[in-house]
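Example record used in the benchmark description.
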Amino acid sequence: MSARDIKELITVIDNSNLVDKAEMKLIEIFIKKELKPGDPIPKETELAEAMGVSRTVIRESLTRLKTIDIIEAKKHKGTVIKSPSLIKTLEKSLIPNILDDATLRDIFELRLVIEVGMADFIVQHVTPSDIKNLNEIVRTEPEKSDTVLFDIDHEIKFHGLLYEITGNKSLIQFQKLLLPLFNYAYKSGLINKPIKRKRYVSHKGLIEVLKSGDADKFRSAMRAHLENHFQRINNRQVN
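Model output (structure tokens):
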């Protein structure tokens, strides 16, 4: 692709906030040229000439795009388009120690939505071997979760296996991404708040419902199970 070809796709950008604007124009080029993962992008010199900016500006813009996984360097091919990973992009900014309590609460609520919503996938894909592994995880847990805030290791292993059972790679990656946040919230005492209502569906109770093969019942049971945590993190009082 020549500089002339690129010029037909875009307009020359002005001199303010050059790197920001160049970054957006690069994405515009990729979209208009319908470049797919693995396709090479134009050379720095061609991009610089077409946009009317220096190669330094183009180079910095490309570096930004590499950081967010839109492009990557390939041996013998140069810089090519990459299928961006939302998970990796989020991972760079989800640092538990610098997130405020409100953001941590929001993330826990996001977990509620996801884990209740994935009930159909769990019921559809669960196997007898999965049930056996879930039972092994909860073997030492109490039958009812009256005043118990589950051991974090059990919590992570149990819910982590549920994510794996879905077979959805993005869900599995997302759960692993959130693990440091969950750890921090547990250890910081953020969810160790007094609540009025104390009886919820335990992990063992979830397994029994899962055995029934009824996605609606499992969804309701998961909602009741997670309410334990969300009442604690929001300190809600429920009759």
